[in-house]
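SUBJECT: protein chain
CONTENTS: sequence, structure tokens:
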Amino acid sequence: MKKWLVLLLLLLALSTAALAGIFIYEPKDKTTTFDKVVMLKGIGKDLKIIKINDQAIPVNSKGAFACGLVLRPGKNLVEIRALDLYGDHFVKSLSLLGMRTFPDVESPYEGKKHWARNQIVYLASLGFIEGYPDDNFYPGNPVTRGELATWIARTKQLSVPALTEDVFFDVPKEHWRAPYVKAVVDAGYMKGYDNQTFGLDDPISRRKAAEVVVATEGIDVVERVKPLFIDVPKAERGAFPIYLAKEKGLLKGVSENLPVYEPDRALTRAEAAVLLARFDRSQNAVQWLFNFDKGFTSAAYSAVNLEPKIISFTINPVTIIARQKSTVRLQAQLDPRQNLSPISKVSVNLTELGCMPDVQLFDDGSHGDLEKDDQIYTLNLSFEPKESGSKMLYVIAVDRLGWQGGGEASLTIVE
């Protein structure tokens, strides 16, 4: 009997504990995801305030709360802090790993994903390499000297200097790759063609890439090397770095069946990624990336996002006369976004008035807007209504992530 009583009390205690504090439905702790934005959903009892990564989050009458987590590539910390009506504080944290990939790397070819997919994903998730502005990687494109310099500087975690003068004539200090080129050149890993020219956008040959690898990884030059490729004679200039890098496992040929290297062909972006992934520092970084016990600090806070909130949407005047030209002022006041994704557009659907379905409101001091950047979006609309009746207008605010919030107001048209 006593055992049953103890068990009952234990179950009661566990049930009470479950109701206290906060519970997170999703995402699960230690989640690895390729999604750039994931939803956080949770619930609490008698909550007064809840903040996620220092951002206040609204709680509904049932204690439920939700927000978007905008994940950076790599490690993301999510810290949930709550205060209930009784003054009790609760803290939970989630460790999330945001992986980065590219559509053209994931697209299967002959039933298989790209041969360098894993290395590209790991290095992109670490922030060592980047894709193109259209979000593709273009693995078969030649890697440029500027790209390779940038990727090496990041992989080797070189100190990137603030520039006061141009690095080369073709690498002005204003170019975003210039500090990386400077760091790599100062480290002795790469050189310019001469004192004036680096060839920022030029491809780099597989022969030259071998020289860069030997310099970057500090491979000691030996007197004897074993000739391993039929298209790279031992006596040929540049053969030594190729064979040294091959013996160290950093470079490989282009065929599993033939000892061919193709030294004069341009190194592709995929080949460059695989090459960098073989560096000792890269391999250590990948191990660190997947270690959920390290690196999750406040510096790794994920960004938080909420849908835009329209505080009010008004039409002035609220009554106009049919078949008579009138001007009405449409105003939508938005809740300040602060650290949330900025608003990209506020628009109103005017099809009820026989006008366009997507007409923009402004917060730039134009089109009837009185004050710039005050979160009040305005449009002075002049038109001649064709028919009477009550017309409902809908306004939508969209942020840069595509999240939407809406509001509505009615306009009465009389005879």
Q: What stands out?
A: Residues 307-414 form a domain with the Immunoglobulin-like fold (CATH 2.60.40.10). The chain has three domains: 20-98, 103-299, 307-414. The two ends are 83 Å apart (CA to CA).
